[in-house]
Amino acid sequence: MNGIHDLGGAHGHGPILNDPNEPVFSHDWERRTFSLFASLFVGGHFNVDEFRHAIERMDPAHYLEGSYYEHWLHSFETLLVEKGVITAAELAQGKSDPAAAASNAPVLTQEMVALVVNTGGSARIDEEVAPKFRVGDRVRTKNINPVTHTRLPRYARSKVGTIEIDHGVFVTPDAAAHGLGEKPQHVYSVSFTAKELWGEDASPNDTVRIDLWDEYLEVV
Amino acid sequence: MAHDHNHTAPPNEIELRVKALESLLTEKGLIDPDAMNELIDTYEHRVGPRNGAKVVAKAWTDPAYKARLLADGTQAIAELGYSGVQGEDMVVVENTPDVHNVTVCTLCSCYPWPTLGLPPSWYKAAPYRSRVVIDPRGVLEEFGLTIAESKEIRVWDSSAELRYLVLPERPEGTDGWSEEQLVDLVTRDSMIGTGLPLQPTAK
């Protein structure tokens, strides 16, 4: 979707606020919110693409005003209600409805944390899928404007670039964010010159490399 | 306050929302507060850019390791024990006299947690994410970094599940330094690409 999250190339967002003494968490509610992610992910309540898409669907003004972990909180609330894990009434009261069905979803325990943290969950898929392109190929990104989830940023649509790395076969977020399966396909690092992306006034030497899925690309 | 994306004084409303959600999920038996405390302790105290600095210092002193690191970042980083969540598939990109690398996630805030820890606020906020792809030189100037016009600035926008770590150039004047000494020169920002390693001073 052409959402507020798709920030690449936007102007007017002000200076970068770099505080070298910033702590890992600034507030206790950030700690709690951060640790809910792995807990709910292990419970199988959503995948990472659904999680990101729920953030993208935030009201744009709220997105820009809200801090990072507020985005996470919004995503948890949205997805858990949408998927029926909790009801809006339960969320409003912070109390479970005694009539609600008990869940048998797996629960992340303290003993499981080290293994989960050290293993993670790769989006790579061990499956033979023929790549449409080879390293060195010239490609053009498609001009797509889906209202659904995509990882082709607006600033890189209808642009000509070069395949630099074939990363292998991965889950496709455009499908996985909407319950449409993994749709395994190749992901490439595609190089674009600054001039191709931003026009003649851009630096002649600089480039941007973006990781893009096979289906975003066509032969020049 | 439109420009203050750090929001150091959050409205109380957020705290209440988090408390409500956490107690609801606990009551339903969907989360275990002990697991949450373990996760917080892990990322607040045990994982951080010191891990990435050890990877860089080893690459600076061990050419065979550097070759493995650039060929298969995931495997070579796992040799040092840094793998897992948000570092499942790693790519290490090397700074050279001709290329300066810098990383961003314009669509969200993807970042290599096992090697760098959790990202700083500025990495996750609109000013950096919007501007580093269109004006990398201006952004790096804001970090106090001037890159020669003749050099390519290569911005990596991590839109997929690959996570990037910059291998900065080893500072001059560090011949004969041990891996352990070199670790102290490697800053977090030098592995993002918004900084350079510290320069050696008398040690």
Automatic annotation (TrEMBL), chain A:
Its EC number is 4.2.1.84. Residues 1-105 form the Nitrile hydratase beta subunit-like N-terminal domain. Keywords: Lyase. The keyword Cell inner membrane does not apply. NHase catalyzes the hydration of various nitrile compounds to the corresponding amides. One of its GO terms (molecular function) is transition metal ion binding. This is Nitrile hydratase subunit beta.
UniProtKB/TrEMBL annotation, chain B:
Keywords: Iron, Lyase, Metal-binding. Fe(3+) binds at residues 105, 108-110. The keyword NADP does not apply. Its EC number is 4.2.1.84. It is an enzyme of class 4 (lyase). Pfam families: NHase_alpha. GO terms for molecular function: nitrile hydratase activity; transition metal ion binding. Residues 13-194 form the Nitrile hydratase alpha/Thiocyanate hydrolase gamma domain. It catalyses: an aliphatic primary amide = an aliphatic nitrile + H2O. InterPro entries: CN_Hdrase_a/SCN_Hdrase_g_sf (IPR036648), CN_Hdrtase_a/SCN_Hdrlase_g (IPR004232), CN_Hdrtase_asu/SCN_Hdrlase_gsu (IPR023900), Nitrile_hydratase_asu (IPR018141). Belongs to the nitrile hydratase subunit alpha family. NCBIfam families: nitrile_alph. This is nitrile hydratase.
